[in-house]
Amino acid sequence: MTRIVLAIILAALVLAIVALADCALSVRDSVRTLPKAVWVVIVVVLPIVGPLLWFFLGRPSARQLASAATSRPDDDPGFLEGLDAQQRVRKLEEELARLERENFGDTPGDDGTAPGPNTDGHGRS
Question: How many whole angstroms separate alpha carbon 40 and alpha carbon 48?
Answer without folding.
Answer: 13
